[in-house]
Amino acid sequence: MKFAEFPDYPLKVSKICLGTMMFGEKCNYSLSETIIHKAIDLGVNFFDTAAMYSGGETEKFLGKALKGVPRNNLFIGTKVFKGIDRISILQSIDESLSRLQMDYVDLYMIHWPIVGMNLTEMMGALNEVVQSGKTRMVGCCNFPGYLLSSSNAIAAENGWAKLVCNQVAYNLFERGVEVEILPQAILDRIAVTAYRPLAVGLLSGKFRPGMEMDSTTRGASDSRVITWLAQHGAEIERFLCLAEDKNLQPAQLAVAWVSHSAAVTAAIVGVSSVSQLESSVMAADVQLTEADYQTITAMFHTEVLEEGLQLFPGLKYNFPRIRRNLSVAHK
Fold it and tell me: Helix axis angle, 119-131 relative to 145-158, nearest 10°?
């Protein structure tokens, strides 16, 4: 297992984070416990959960399974559930800690932005949670760059804890975060945890163009699977063939592609079996060359296009490229 620095935190986190959304929904407690303990055996120390998963059962499963595991060896992240106002933030952390049977979490995150949210109230409440010792750090999920920057500016003005992490969807189809969010993470030392690296199973080979869908599977009803298969079927096939040529599971290659970015701290993998876990964890050992990375990237016509990307020879100034550049400035 490879490990990464988390901003201003002494414990390094595993580059593979175990997402727990399946626990309580698709996995009963016994299977969930088996997967969690196997993950620890494989070197995983980073676990991501949320109060909303399975109505709180997921947090209960995780907490119960981790009883007896030295707490200072673990990095646990969970998310606000009730709302973004002060009372909801303060109540939500207490309820999460009760379900987890823990005194604190390492990372407490806002789950989604809400239209009309009061950033000063939100950051003040998150700072209260840090000051109380109930979380070591605070972060967010699915925040655009401007919202994260504005939140942290308010925190800096008041001497409050800053958001140190942005959890975002990132895979070969969903690449919007390459524009400004990943470069911002490099410059401002924001940890990025990437969920959905397998694109709802499409990049694991679970669903393929032309295959008959089992009506009981997610692919039969998930609009993303149906749309991406229709739009990128040939590209998916080329990707699966490349994985086979490299003697890798497609899931390993997909996670390795996400992890290749210098801005990505950890890839979050959600699994419902030990075999899926083992395959995903092995991705931490896959080292893509820059040529391999560019080959995979070029297979998919999914880059966010703006101003035609200004792909003209001889241009000195190129705004779209600057917005994606991870090293355009330093502090």
Answer: 60
Strands 13-14 and 16-19: unpaired
Domain residue extents for the chain:
3-305
Query: Which letter, b or e, does each residue of 178-209 get, where b requires 16 or more Cβ atoms within 10 Å of its Cβ?
Result: bbbbbbbbbebebbbbbbbbbbbbbbbbbbee
Contacts of 3 (CB under 8 A, 6+ apart): 12, 13, 14, 15
CA dist., res. 326 & res. 180, Å (int): 9
269 has which bridge partners? 18
Contact 7, 191 (CB under 8 A): yes
Angle between helices 250-259 and 223-245 (to 10 degrees): 100
0.85 exceeded by pTM: yes
Distance CA 84, CA 224 (A): 28
With contact defined as beta carbons under 8 Å apart, do 36 and 66 qualify?
Answer: yes
Measured CA to CA, the distance from residue 42 to residue 165 in angstroms comes to: 24
| pLDDT(313) > 70 | no
Catalytic residues: 53
User: How far, in Å, are 136, 201, 325 from residue 302 at the CA level?
Assistant: 37, 17, 17
Listed residue (174, 154, 157) closest to 258, CA to CA: 174
Rounded Cα–Cα distance for residues 95 and 112 (Å):
19
Q: 3-305: what CATH class?
A: alpha beta
Q: What is the mean pLDDT of residues 108-114?
A: 94
Return the pLDDT at 309: 56
Query: Would you give the DSSP letter of residue 8?
Result: T
The closest alpha carbon to 180, from 290, 61, 9, 329, belongs to 329
- DSSP state at residue 192: E
Tell me the per-residue pLDDT of 58-80, one tens digit each, with 9 for 90 and over.
Answer: 999 999 999 999 999 999 999 99
- Please classify residue 231 by burial: count the beta carbons closer than 10 Å to its beta carbon, then call 0-12 exposed, 13-18 middle and 19+ buried: middle
